[in-house]
Design a protein that fits this description.
The chain has 660 residues and is α/β, with parallel strands linked by helices. Helices cover 43% and strands 13% of the residues. It is elongated and about 95 Å long.
């Protein structure tokens, strides 16, 4: 028997309905409403290969409305991805099932990104679309020509990040970005009219997007809109008028179908209305075969693409493999060693933001996959160098993006750049504005992406801009995120070493906090070894009989060395430890940690910010010196003095404590 379109869509609907019901948790309404749009996309337009989910030129499909995750899992299972079995679907939202409550990125599974926090997936997609343009420019449109498709909800478009990312997408004319807006006019609280009266058409046209209105349950209208969008010279949003909970006699079009199981009685009525007589999780063989045929088409598409690559020349094939598979960092280690040796001779006094710029300038000449940018602070973050070539709507043959004042959007776009494959994004803003980037940084860490966040103006040392711009709790907040390395280098060589670690950290994002004020070169000897790799090391020791250990990071290492000299003048010997990365230090063997911070030593920690993350190092003997209140507006030396962060005050504190 022939299988019609409704049967294909209903297979998606009922896998979603049944999984949510069995889990007694989830969001059935969105998959029921968007099943027709998704079926048209997968059947007629999406280029993908379930047998090779990492095919470089595949179209990317992003479910930004992550609460409707069963839509994605149903599609992956039906089209033949091995990553999602029927047992996984039966275990929706259960421990160790790939079918988590919201999609969680796992390379090679068909789940392209982690979504759930609304607006994030949509913004990741902008990064993926930029990456596609970069590679298409590099390899040619016959080699790279994929599209990025997104399903977004009302909630995605309410979130402020959607404005940032979609404005940037329009500015860059990302023509291969196509967004389906699930315009069902329902949110958890009820009708979207409770909180939104936007004119979406005017909104997106003002960004420089196409805007199409269609019936999201009309197969021909959906397909025609996708075809039209595919030929466009700018990004497109297709507003799909859908009915949430489509097919439910009592809950369709209502908030009650949004975030709760339908219930056995209502599901029975849906089965009757949509003429689906199959048992829970049962897909008729003919319907499953038709869905598998849809998946099988991708194998032929990839084969033709591979043949096209082979015809061109092996140089392109090797370059593609180098970019996407090998993640080649070339002669990075020898470059860093050479730069460190150079600076050991010159011993420059520089702000660490300047040190970072020097590092980027050297590294970017070696690594073309490094894609930089800044949230309109290029001159302050020092993220732009003489090697930076600007990416714009007319030319993607570059390595630097002007993100504008869009920290939240920039960070999510960087995640998309990393997810596409082969690129290493870094982007800058002030450390205080890491608060705007935090949700995206958290997702970088959750997904294990190699994304590098550059945060300058890292303390009260920025001075006159005052407490609105002086970070206090930001380092503590970043250090609280699992699987994020937070670096605070003390001079040029530490900065180079932190950059090297960040570039080598394949499963961990990095945040590098940098100073506005200058710091001296601190290291008494040059080593090929990366001393920051273990998180901390001894900079100087006045005697092996020392009974004081001073631990500091960043600009406060200079202060620690000055305190050490003052103590020596008073016949108190000490050891100064630089700790550029707590996360790396905390992972070291106990013997190493005890050697660096001796248990019987009087331990003093110094950082011009919150002391919360430092308390673990002093045990019962020692003191944490920092700031747990907002800063002040004044020249930075005056601000440091105001908060007792001077060598005289700290020396006095230590002497008084030792006398107790």
């Amino acid at each position: 028997m022939s299988v019609n379109f409704n049967q294909l869509s209903n297979a998606v609907r009922f896998l979603s309905i049944d999984a949510v019901q069995k889990a007694n948790s989830g969001h059935p309404g969105m998959p029921m409403g968007m099943a027709d749009v998704a079926t048209v996309l997968f059947k007629y337009h999406l280029r993908f290969n379930p047998k090779n989910p990492t095919w470089i030129n595949r179209d990317r499909f992003i479910l930004s409305a992550g609460h409707g995750s069963m839509l994605l899992y149903a599609l992956l299972h039906l089209t033949g991805y091995k990553s999602v079995s029927i047992e996984d679907i039966k275990n929706f939202r259960q421990l160790n099932s790939i079918c988590a409550g919201h999609p969680e990125y796992k390379k090679g599974t068909g789940i392209e990104t982690t979504t759930g926090p609304l607006g994030q997936g949509l913004s990741n997609a902008v990064g993926m679309a930029i990456a596609e343009e970069i590679y298409r420019k590099k390899f040619g449109s016959n080699v790279i020509n994929n599209k990025t498709y997104v399903i977004a909800s009302d909630g995605d478009l309410m979130e402020g990040i959607s404005h940032e990312a979609m404005s940037l997408a329009g500015h860059l004319k990302l023509k291969n970005l196509i967004v389906f807006f699930d315009n069902n006019k329902i949110s958890i609280d009820g009708s979207t009219s409770l909180s939104v009266s936007d004119n979406y058409k005017k909104r997106f046209e003002s960004y420089g997007w196409n805007f199409f209105d269609i019936n999201g349950h009309n197969e021909k209208q959906i397909s025609k809109a996708i075809s039209k969008a595919s030929r466009s010279s700018k990004p497109t949003i297709i507003s799909c008028k859908t009915i949430i909970g489509f097919g439910s006699p009592n809950k369709s079009g209502k908030a009650s179908s949004h975030g709760s199981p339908l219930g056995d009685e209502e599901i029975a009525l849906v089965r009757k209305k949509l003429k689906w007589s199959n048992k829970p999780f049962e897909i008729p063989l003919e319907v499953l075969k038709e869905w598998r045929k849809i998946g099988d088409k991708g194998e032929l598409l990839e084969k033709k693409w591979q043949e096209n690559i082979n015809k061109k020349n092996f140089k392109i094939k090797n370059e593609l493999e180098k970019n996407f598979i090998n993640s080649d960092l070339g002669e990075l280690e020898s470059l860093i060693a050479k730069e460190k040796a150079k600076y050991f001779v010159s011993k420059p006094s520089l702000a660490t933001r300047q040190c970072s710029m020097a590092s980027i300038e050297s590294i970017s000449s070696l690594l073309p996959q490094l894609i930089g940018g800044s949230a309109d602070l290029s001159g302050s973050n020092n993220t732009k160098t003489k090697n930076s070539k600007i990416i714009n709507s007319k030319n993607f043959d570059g390595n630097y993006i002007h993100y504008g004042v869009r920290e939240h959007g920039m960070s999510a776009v960087m995640n998309g750049l990393a997810l596409y494959g082969g690129l290493i994004p870094y982007g800058g803003t002030f450390l205080i504005f890491s608060d705007y980037s935090k949700p995206s940084i958290r997702l970088s860490a959750l997904m294990g992406l190699k994304v590098i966040y550059i945060f300058s103006h890292d303390s009260i040392g920025l001075g006159e801009d005052g407490p609105t711009h002086q970070p206090i709790e930001q380092l503590t907040g970043l250090r609280a995120i699992p699987n994020l390395n937070v670096f605070r280098p003390a001079d040029i060589n530490e900065t180079l070493e932190c950059w090297e670690i960040a570039l080598k950290s394949s499963g961990t994002p990095s945040a590098i906090a940098l100073s506005r004020q200058k710091v001296p070169y601190i290291n008494p000897k040059n080593t090929i070894e990366n001393r920051c790799e273990k998180g901390a090391y001894v900079v100087n020791i006045t005697s092996h009989e020392s009974n004081v250990t001073i631990v500091a990071s960043g600009t406060e290492v200079e202060l620690a060395l000055k305190v050490q000299e003052k103590l020596r003048e008073n016949n108190i010997h000490s050891k100064v430890v630089s700790m550029p990365c707590m996360e790396l230090f905390d992972k070291q063997p106990e013997d190493f940690k005890k050697d660096i911070i001796e248990q019987d030593s009087f331990v003093v920690t110094i950082e011009a910010g919150s002391i919360v993350t430092w308390q673990k190092y002093i045990k019962n003997k020692g003191m944490n010196i920092g700031i747990d209140q907002f800063g002040e507006s004044a020249p930075y030396k005056d601000v440091y003095s105001h908060f007792d962060l001077s060598e005289e005050k700290i020396t006095s504190f230590i002497q008084n404590k030792l006398r107790e």
